[in-house]
Design a protein that fits this description.
By secondary structure, the chain is an alpha/beta fold. The protein is 31% helix and 19% strand. It has helices at 34-40, 111-117, 128-136, 151-158, 167-175, 194-203, 234-255, 264-270, 292-306, 324-337, 365-372, 400-407, 418-426; strands at 2-7, 22-26, 29-30, 45-52, 55-62, 71-73, 142-145, 180-186, 209-216, 260-262, 313-320, 341-348, 379-383, 410-414.
Length: 432
């Protein structure tokens, strides 16, 4: 049973349901959350049972199959988010400094968000009933943080004695036809080397494997009292790449898709050239930092070829260490075609989390302000990923408006997309 908070004008329930009514079932099926609601309302005829003041009543209506019923609920999930029960040795959230807003410390492990928003889950939160529901509803794909296919090692890494047996759910999902995107977060000397070889070989047996990414554990400067972990260096990162590329080549030959990929970060640490965009076979793990830089470079080149611009004057771009070399190359390429546009690229060190954190998405307003003070012109471009979903706050609770005042600039954000970046370089900011 879920409580209704609003009704859309003209919808099947408009004029019959009011805020505060509780939705009990649709066509005889209990409604517990957004997955139930979306699945059971995707029909042409609905009979919804509600409760108001202890009395039940039914609303029946005909509609187009994929039309929404028009009900609003207090949360996106129509339920509370499921929190993570694990104590992973590499958990990034445990490495957050104290004093940040409460939402930053929330550990999500919710299969509904995996399907709806692409987040990764460990399967340790799921019951047998949950697995059957995923299969029945044909919810696919599901993104799973596996880390290792060895049950005992997975128990050690996650700090959850049920994490090893939870791997059985992975096989059940595959047998049920659920597409799987896997993630292996590597901790140097723990689940790499022969352990990684075993994990990739085992995961290749999953019938519905779509892709698998291998990413290094993110280590901040705030690991006091946590499990001792060693960052990857050039040689150890290169060993990981060699292992993954071997499996990629085998899968490409066997299935036509490489399926196995290292994150961009491994290539940067190893100081190796990133594969070109074609290597990533559709970018199944783009949002996991896999192939993002190669795709941006390819899309930027395509956009630049068709771009015409009369813009002139200076603009500044600030980015993290990971993307800095690419941003420099793209800025220089743009300026060769449009010499009247001056683009100054700034490399920002993450002092908030520590210099080993190199992505733009974890830069704070304070880091931007401190390192750019007195160094920028009137227009500053930064990655949209540095801000929260609403675009209103950096991780340190600084606002974009505060950063603008501090630096005396007009702040613009761009997506991690080569077309968007090229358009930002070409824009005329004199009228804004």
């Amino acid at each position: 049973m879920v409580t209704v908070t609003g009704i859309e004008n003209g919808s099947p329930c408009y004029g019959k349901v009011i805020p505060g009514d509780a939705l009990i079932s649709v066509n005889g099926h209990e409604i517990r959350d957004v997955l139930d609601y979306r699945f059971y309302t995707t029909v042409k005829h609905i009979e919804c049972v509600f409760c108001r003041g202890g009395e039940k009543f039914t609303v029946a209506a005909d509609k187009d199959e994929y039309d929404d019923v028009g009900l609003d609920f207090s949360t996106f999930l129509m339920d509370k988010k499921r929190t993570c029960r694990n104590k992973c040795v590499f958990c990034f959230i445990d490495q957050n400094p104290k004093g940040m807003r409460e939402s930053v410390y929330f550990k999500d492990d919710d299969e509904r968000l995996s399907f709806l928003q692409g987040s990764y889950i460990t399967l340790t939160n799921l019951s047998d009933e949950d697995i059957e529901r995923i299969i029945k509803m044909k919810i696919s794909p599901i993104n799973v943080s596996v880390h290792t296919m060895e049950p005992e090692l997975r128990v050690m890494m996650t700090g959850n004695r049920f994490a090893g047996e939870a791997l059985n759910k992975l096989w059940r999902l595959a047998e049920g036809g659920t597409g799987l995107n896997l993630q292996f977060v590597l901790c140097r000397g723990i689940n790499d080397g022969a352990h990684l070889e075993y994990s990739l070989a085992e995961s290749a047996k999953l019938k519905t494997l779509i892709s698998a990414s291998v990413v290094p554990a993110g280590l901040t400067a705030h690991r006091e009292g946590l499990y001792p972990l060693e960052p990857y260096d050039k040689a150890s990162a290169a060993q990981v790449i060699d292992t993954v590329e071997k499996f990629h080549a085998a899968q490409k030959k066997r299935t036509g898709s490489g399926k196995y990929y290292c994150s961009d970060e491994f290539y940067l640490i190893a100081e190796r050239k990133l594969p070109d965009a074609a290597y990533y076979c559709g970018f199944d793990q783009y949002d996991n930092g896999v192939g993002m830089l190669s795709d941006m470079e390819q899309c930027f080149a395509d956009a630049l070829r068709d771009t015409e611009s009369s813009a002139s004057g200076r603009i500044d771009l600030a980015t993290g260490h990971a993307a800095y070399p690419l941003m420099r190359r793209l800025a220089e390429r743009f300026q060769r075609k449009f010499p009247d546009r001056q683009i100054v690229v700034h490399r920002i060190t993450n002092e908030f989390f520590g210099p080993s954190v190199t992505v733009s998405g974890l830069l704070t307003g304070g880091d931007y302000a401190k390192q750019l003070k007195g160094k920028v012109g009137k227009v500053l471009l930064i990655s949209r990923s540095s801000l929260n979903a609403d675009g209103t706050l950096f991780l340190d609770d600084t606002t974009p408006e505060e950063l603008e005042r501090e630096l005396g600039v007009r702040l613009y954000t761009n997506k991690a997309d080569g077309y968007d970046l090229c358009a930002a370089f070409a824009a005329d900011y004199t009228e804004n």
